[in-house]
Automatic annotation (TrEMBL):
<dbReference type="InterPro" id="IPR036188">
    <property type="entry name" value="FAD/NAD-bd_sf"/>
</dbReference>
<dbReference type="InterPro" id="IPR057661">
    <property type="entry name" value="RsdA/BaiN/AoA(So)_Rossmann"/>
</dbReference>
<dbReference type="InterPro" id="IPR023166">
    <property type="entry name" value="BaiN-like_dom_sf"/>
</dbReference>
<dbReference type="Pfam" id="PF22780">
    <property type="entry name" value="HI0933_like_1st"/>
</dbReference>
<dbReference type="InterPro" id="IPR055178">
    <property type="entry name" value="RsdA/BaiN/AoA(So)-like_dom"/>
</dbReference>
<protein>
    <recommendedName>
        <fullName>NAD(P)/FAD-dependent oxidoreductase</fullName>
    </recommendedName>
</protein>
<keyword id="KW-0285">Flavoprotein</keyword>
<dbReference type="InterPro" id="IPR004792">
    <property type="entry name" value="BaiN-like"/>
</dbReference>
<keyword id="KW-0274">FAD</keyword>
<dbReference type="Pfam" id="PF03486">
    <property type="entry name" value="HI0933_like"/>
</dbReference>
<feature type="domain" description="RsdA/BaiN/AoA(So)-like Rossmann fold-like">
    <location>
        <begin position="6"/>
        <end position="391"/>
    </location>
</feature>
<feature type="domain" description="RsdA/BaiN/AoA(So)-like insert">
    <location>
        <begin position="189"/>
        <end position="338"/>
    </location>
</feature>
């Protein structure tokens, strides 16, 4: 005999737990199933262990999706302020780092404990280490065969996340369920991920490995101004992770290092006041020594500033602040923070996350074709889509 619930949520991650809490608060009997040993594993490792749990400025323009309007309803229904209120009710100490990013003072585990305590208050059942073997439509909803037996529910919510960090149990299960029920998918790819170079470029740039600088990184009309890091395989740091979600193979990105300074103006003014200075010495006022040396050597610039024409200085500055470079690829799902693409939003009702053509079936969180910028936006989507769904059950 199958055990019956009003709602079954697949996935005890950020979105699944929030949805279960809201549905439970509304008096529904809710079961959450997960194949992992512990709930909220990605919450635990997020934000370097301190969980950047939301961004106080979260708004639709911070999300990538085939339909830019899709996120509006859920984000308005459950805002960053709403989540912060919950955090404060649980007396979890937090701080704002930069750019509206809110982090726990102590540990991401505080957020998991908060969600588990809300789940228990809402009488939600949680079954971990449970493999889902099959899902089928039943007369009253959905029947699930699992390693813990058979379960049935009128509503089935899929919150099993994306493919990033397979080592932590990420699977493409949500996409398989979507395909089983005939829902369209937007092709998936790794997002918020370091970019890599081909062997030739790597050899040239290898002396720079380990250097971190402020940079503006652009792809087409999109640009991010944050820290950038040269790694032994390519580029990383927040500005690179951000642009990686927009970048496609075969495209260039444009780097402007120390974007708040005009290197061209600085070199020209140094030439006026100190013409005997070498270009590399002048550049060292702005850039780390190894970088200054790399650019000067790369442009073949020698001699004193006084010997260098405007054109040479402008060219040198452009090689630093208008540097077009073509990544060969990315580090992939192994290290990507998120999965771009997923369940096509045109198949879902943006108010409830229900599949339009499949009553009682819902998709929330990262498995949907909605991906936030770096900075707490992805958890906010998980909370907002989870709440909107739970509030409709
Ligand atoms: P999530 O992946 O959290 O949960 C899915 C759940 O489903 C998991 O518990 C999994 O075990 C379960 N599951 C998967 N397949 C299953 C199957 N076949 N059967 C049963 N269960 C299954 N975002 C942010 O806003 N701020 C931050 O600080 C960070 N930091 C960060 C660091 C790192 C290293 C990563 C990888 C990611 C982040 N993120 C982030 C992104 C954030 O973690 C992500 O957007 C959310 O966790 C997505 O929440 P979901 O609930 O949709 O999926």
């Amino acid at each position: 005999m199958a055990q019956k619930f009003d709602v079954i949520v697949l996935g005890a991650g950020a979105a699944g737990m929030m949805c279960a809490i809201r549905a439970g608060q509304r008096g529904r009997s809710v079961l959450v199933l997960d194949h992992a040993k512990a709930p909220g594993e990605k919450i635990r490792i997020s934000g370097g262990g301190r969980c950047n749990f939301t961004n106080i400025g979260a708004a639709p323009q911070h999300y990538l999706s085939g339909n830019a309007h899709f996120v509006k309803s859920a984000l308005a229904r459950y805002t960053a302020r709403d989540f912060l209120d919950l955090v404060e009710r649980h007396r979890i100490p937090w701080n704002e780092k930069t750019l509206g990013q809110l982090f726990c003072d102590n540990s991401a585990k505080d957020i998991i404990a908060m969600l588990l305590s809300e789940m228990s208050a809402a009488k939600v059942s949680l079954k971990l280490q449970t493999a889902i073997d099959g899902i089928e439509k039943s007369p009253d909803g959905y029947r699930l065969a699992t390693s813990a037996g058979q379960f049935e529910a009128g509503s089935l919510v899929v919150a099993t996340g994306g493919k990033s960090i397979p080592k932590m149990g990420a699977t493409g299960f949500a996409y398989e369920i979507a395909a089983q029920f005939g829902l369209k998918l937007v092709e998936t790819r790794p997002g918020l991920v370091p970019l890599t170079f081909d062997q030739n470029t790597l050899e040239k740039l290898s002396p720079l490995s380990g250097i971190a600088v402020p940079a503006e990184v652009r792809h087409g009309r999109t640009g991010f101004r944050e820290a950038m890091l040269f790694t032994h395989r390519g580029l990383s740091g927040p500005s690179i992770l951000q642009i990686s979600s927009y970048w496609r193979e075969g495209d260039d990105i444009t780097l402007s290092i120390e974007p708040d300074a005009s290197i061209s103006d600085a070199l020209k003014s140094a030439r006026k006041t100190n013409g005997r200075q070498a270009a590399q010495t002048a550049l060292c006022e702005i850039l780390p020594k190894r970088l200054a040396q790399y650019f000067v050597e790369n442009r073949g610039v020698t001699g004193n500033l006084a010997d260098l024409s405007d054109k040479m200085l402008t060219g040198l500055a452009a090689s630093i602040q208008d540097w077009k470079i073509r990544p060969a690829g990315s580090e992939g799902y192994r290290t990507a923070e998120v999965t771009l693409g997923g369940i096509d939003t045109s198949a879902l009702d943006s108010k409830t996350m229900q599949a339009k053509a499949v009553p009682g079936l819902y998709f929330i969180g990262e498995c949907v074709d909605v991906t936030g910028w770096l900075g707490g936006y992805n958890f906010q989507w998980a909370w907002s889509s989870g709440y909107a769904c739970g509030d409709s059950l």
